[in-house]
Design goal:
Blueprint: H1 2-18, H2 21-51, H3 55-97, H4 99-102
Helix pairs in contact: 1-2, 2-3
Length: 111
């Protein structure tokens, strides 16, 4: 949506000034490339550093949240993923400190 909202005035102003389809196509290419770079590289990296998640997990959370819950899912996807990460790390810490994890004897399978 942001691509269309920003691209339409830029293309119209380019056409009004140059009356050249090549210039309009150049504006569309530069605008689309910048939007693609921002959406797939810059935003996930910045967001991942602020919530301490890997950028791939940020993208997966946004995709899953958007496809499952729509716009609301897009808004809550990253905080929910960060909360899940906190719970998993806490659970792993408890598990690794437990007797089950530290058990050195082989357990005989039950018949």
């Amino acid at each position: 949506m942001a691509l269309v909202v920003g691209l339409l005035p830029a293309a119209l102003l380019c056409w009004a000034e140059h009356q050249s389809w090549m210039m309009v196509l150049a504006v569309v290419a530069v605008f689309s490339g910048a939007q693609l770079l921002e959406g797939t590289v810059l935003s996930p990296r910045i967001l991942s550093k602020s919530v301490n998640l890997h950028p791939v997990w940020v993208l997966l959370a946004i995709i899953a949240g958007g496809s499952l819950f729509g716009f609301v899912g897009l808004l809550i996807a990253v905080p929910v993923a960060a909360a899940i990460q906190v719970f998993v790390r806490h659970w792993l810490k408890l598990y690794r400190a437990s007797r089950i994890y530290r058990q050195t004897e082989a357990v005989e399978p039950a018949d």
